[in-house]
Amino acid sequence: MSTSVLDKIPGAKPSGVLMADAIRVLSMEAVHRAKSGHQGMPMGMADVATVLWTKFLKYDPSRPDWADRDRFVLSAGHGSMLIYSLLHLTGYKSVSMEDIKSFRQWGSTTAGHPEYGHTAGVECTTGPLGQGLATAVGMAMAERHLNARFGDDLVNHKTWVIAGDGCLMEGVSHEAISLAGRLKLNNLIVLFDDNNVTIDGYATVAETGDQLARFKAAGWAVKAVDGHDHKKIAAAMRWALERKKPVMIACKTAVSRRAGDKEGDKHGHGYNLMDDEIAAARRHMDWLHEPFTLPDNVKKAWLAAGRKGTKVRKDWEAKAKSNAKFAELSNAMSGELPADAFKALDAHIADAIATQPADATRSCSGKALAALTPTLESMIGGSADLTGSVNTLVKGMTAFDIDNYAGRYVHYGVREFGMAAAMNGMALHGGVLPYAGTFFVFSDYSRPAIRLGALMGAKVVHVMTHDSIGVGEDGPTHQPVEHLASYRSMPGLHVFRPADMIEAAECWKAAITAKGPSMLVLSRQKVPAVRNTGGDLSAKGAYELSAASADAKVTIFSSGTEVSIAIAAQKQLEADGIPTRVVSTPSWDLFEAQPDAYKASVIGAAPVRVAVEAAAKFGWERFIGENGVFVGMSSFGASAPADRLYKEFDITAEAVVAKAKAAL
Amino acid sequence: MSTSVLDKIPGAKPSGVLMADAIRVLSMEAVHRAKSGHQGMPMGMADVATVLWTKFLKYDPSRPDWADRDRFVLSAGHGSMLIYSLLHLTGYKSVSMEDIKSFRQWGSTTAGHPEYGHTAGVECTTGPLGQGLATAVGMAMAERHLNARFGDDLVNHKTWVIAGDGCLMEGVSHEAISLAGRLKLNNLIVLFDDNNVTIDGYATVAETGDQLARFKAAGWAVKAVDGHDHKKIAAAMRWALERKKPVMIACKTAVSRRAGDKEGDKHGHGYNLMDDEIAAARRHMDWLHEPFTLPDNVKKAWLAAGRKGTKVRKDWEAKAKSNAKFAELSNAMSGELPADAFKALDAHIADAIATQPADATRSCSGKALAALTPTLESMIGGSADLTGSVNTLVKGMTAFDIDNYAGRYVHYGVREFGMAAAMNGMALHGGVLPYAGTFFVFSDYSRPAIRLGALMGAKVVHVMTHDSIGVGEDGPTHQPVEHLASYRSMPGLHVFRPADMIEAAECWKAAITAKGPSMLVLSRQKVPAVRNTGGDLSAKGAYELSAASADAKVTIFSSGTEVSIAIAAQKQLEADGIPTRVVSTPSWDLFEAQPDAYKASVIGAAPVRVAVEAAAKFGWERFIGENGVFVGMSSFGASAPADRLYKEFDITAEAVVAKAKAAL
């Protein structure tokens, strides 16, 4: 297909191909100017995107946050000029022509990869391949859930994804598509940019699988289409909207379409069109306008496509406002907490202060959830096939499933990465507050999504249990050692490791209240109560849990299950005439944010500082100084009952006492 | 199928089912005694394993390290009692009946999950699901490569994998099977334990995909079989051996087979057979022997199966010894370096000392590889579809591919996790030294395999480029911040961040010489030479790169691309009359291993200590103390040219100078 003869007439209604050429030219010119980026995919998928954004996608450029809009996710985020072109052309204020000219420059909205929160209209930060698709699954899940809760009139939209060869090679794509297939998410449509070009050359250098057969095996409806034939693309999209399953359309495209020699070429993926090739491509497209200039008719046609959505949005609003559930939906979408959000939790804390229960902190977390989830209806739980172990299922919750999308518990399967990405997608969609659990050691599997969630500020709670050698018999493959350090060093993520029932409840409250994602790190094994006061002390990140009898000679810092070891050591040291205080450090990042004076008072002035944590020492110097005493792990763990491991690895009150004395 | 009537006759040759019952009973009893573990899979797959280990698998219990043995990987590692039973029954010395009785106890060889290096006969540490399968792909690749290099007479064996529902839900399984399918690894056979039970219940709670269709789409030969019918299992295995592709056999099994009520039940996965159920299962199997006691005929039949392999191994040895390439194979398998391993590299270092080249450290790494790989024929490179960017392809290397398994460069595709796991598998197989590259930020994707490699001590080199905001325009999704801290805290992994051509070569030498896995963290952007001396200083982890003109008032610690910033700051401070020294810290773990006196001398006594690194501060306190000055990142990065980002995030010589002065 090429532009029509009518396109030669200035001012005539442009053909779809001419409209797509506008994307192609903007993309090619922005990349050329930045000397960086990728024109290959935007030029290749320009036709598909034009059909989608002019005929199918439900969006209103004047209200990027309209609740019932379709979600569009550019999973192949390196093709960012595609979405920037679309946002600019359809009239989003977030992307001006100046921004297009400043592609990939400091402060512009046209960052190298699309960034959620940075550019209105970008629904999801993408670039790390495969994750856009996996995040979109979460968006589609959230939509189905809210649809079940609020009805078709308020919530009824699609999630559209553009994914490339790279996305589909990533493992997370498997977790995403098998989960979506299992849940029959008929509101999810993936447009596969089937261009057979990756960075190393033609995709076949590394991939010869049959993607259509693969998606079909996962329970999807599939179809292949010529990705440059506007009519066939439109027919495929119409067909997709009628399926009762998620849909994958493989769009056969040529990378750097209409860029002359680089069209369909393995060198057409990223920035490498030189001046003469840009000129040739412009001639090839009959595009004779100045750089970064659009002809009026093309500009008008694109803006008109955007304006169509404004009417749809207004119609929805008019109907929605008379819907009895509209206020409730708006509340849910706002993410604001109800006034009584923590009433039951506070009562639970009061009870724990009174009864001083011994429990595993995973179980403490489960009890906090039991106090939170009845009030916080937006909370949607789940686990990666470890429901009984991670205490995320609250009694009375039903499974989110094909015949019950209103259910609030997701069986994610053994898909840690897909789970974390789906949670991000739910949070980005809005209206739900997802939390889900797996073993802490397997947070490694979900780490890329945990990072992306931290970068996006997606409000989710990762419940990570079995948090140390306390796992016991399962051995070193299942025993985290370096994980606390590895997450404490991640920007934007709140990490909590509570010590008992009270701290666990406080940490949940802090997680629910905090901006962005949180992680609760919890034990398999039972620990005694270590607190008998309220005061929401965990919110300060670290605090003096137990004072010394006189000017402290020793301060013991600790978190989680080792706080009780610190308390036992304190008793022994005090009995031996050594005034000792104990500091609990449930959240290093919240502590870091406290005023310096508070921090100094918590660190204290004791001549000997000891840290005890069943984890790597890495990072503890900030509490104990470079010459402080550390009682913890310096290797991987081993397989044996937990008590034995604590003894063998010398993480005991006796070790703390002996080392503290030696340092005095 | 059940035991035959002949099995009632004491001393008669046991049926296959009776032999499988031995596995079932040992597994069930060991788990029962440990009150921990999983009898479900070992009992379900006992029949398949019996057929495999008595009729097909090539192994010699008296030589667990025989080079041409088949590799057996229990990807579903929680079923560890299956392999411990097999090792014990076939006569491996590593697993005695006492060990079986001590399942999951401190010091026993029967750890909770199979551990490579801990128990002879265990080829791979498993437990983190999906990874056994992905590791096995690497083993099969190594085998095909060595076969191409040494011929059928020396190297010609299979890799067999048992994988469960959980393994196949994990994303890494997709990367593994699509890579194996692409490479047509006809020496790889996966036995899928198709039992439809996971921890959350029946697998269908989370998975309804068609696994046979899925593997077929990835280019595998597939077949389903009754996993309790010995004849049909054997026929399927014979069929598998004749395919020209990797093979997946879906073995329909019942979890906790022959355990009465729990057979095939969703509660039959893990430990939960109580005393009465154990008794009932024994009655059901007609197994009337004392616990942990085997009837003589069963014992003998199993030992005979093991001994068959001894003969096969001896025949191989007899033939191998007269093969001209035998010594070379033995050398390769031993992992010993040739005497002239570093001759070219040393010359390259001498040249760099003389010429002081400015270069990106990724390019420095590429040049070190060009000096190493011609001599070290075992080195097999690759990348996750970033060949041109990560500098891992040395001129003259050809692609490892279907028609050229002798090739030494692997196009892993966009499969970071699968790549890292495959590298582990190659290293475990032996005979090759794998290295491969991706962007440092995407090390998050491969992290679970990097960890498992560190735990196993698998000798691989992860080449991680684009190591900071120096990535520039690609933005925060592509800019590592917390990654250095996250890997420096991982036990068993050597992390190197070289500053220039000389350090890059030294770090490669250290990585090749070191035990276990290494990671080289390298820059996209060009940096000046900072060293003009030899002396293999990087091997000490940290060292004084540039002395102060007098008693130092300031020490600046740095690594990688920021060392040149440190040097520039030193010049300015010295010019301002402030004696300043610079310490380069290419490897924290190697530094940690130095004598205390050396460490103290490197840390020095300057009153002001500054660290500059374009990464998170986390962990730097060990060099600069808790009140030291840090110049680096405290948030995610942004999209803009690299120079601009260094300025905006204030990681400059000026910032170092100003902050050092303020602290004086």
TrEMBL record, chains A, B:
Manner of cofactor binding, per the entry note: Binds 1 Mg(2+) ion per subunit. Can also utilize other divalent metal cations, such as Ca(2+), Mn(2+) and Co(2+). Binds 1 thiamine pyrophosphate per subunit. During the reaction, the substrate forms a covalent intermediate with the cofactor.
Q: Where is this site: Important for catalytic activity?
A: H38, H269
Q: Which GO terms describe its cellular component?
A: cytosol
- List the residue ranges forming a coiled coil, or say none: none
Query: In this record, what's one Pfam family?
Result: Transket_pyr
Sequence ranges assigned to domain Transketolase-like pyrimidine-binding in this UniProt record:
359-529
> Which residues participate in thiamine diphosphate binding?
H78, G127, P128, L129, G166, N195, H269, F442
Query: What Enzyme Commission number does this protein have?
Result: 2.2.1.1
Q: Where does Mg(2+) bind?
A: D165, N195, V197
Per the record, the GO terms for biological process are: pentose-phosphate shunt, non-oxidative branch
UniProt entry keywords in alphabetical sequence: Calcium, Magnesium, Metal-binding, Thiamine pyrophosphate, Transferase
Keyword presence, Transferase: yes
What cofactor does this one take?
Mg(2+); Co(2+); Ca(2+); thiamine diphosphate
Which GO molecular function annotations are given, in alphabetical order? metal ion binding; transketolase activity
Q: Does the keyword Transferase apply?
A: yes
Chemical reaction(s) catalysed: D-sedoheptulose 7-phosphate + D-glyceraldehyde 3-phosphate = aldehydo-D-ribose 5-phosphate + D-xylulose 5-phosphate
Annotated active site residues, numbered on this chain, are E416
Top EC category:
transferase
Q: Where along this sequence does the record place binding of substrate?
A: H38, H269, R362, S389, H466, D474, H478, R524
Question: What does the record note on quaternary structure?
Answer: Homodimer.
- Family to which this protein belongs: Belongs to the transketolase family.
Check the record and name the PANTHER family matching this protein.
TRANSKETOLASE, TRANSKETOLASE 1-RELATED
Protein name, UniProt field: Transketolase
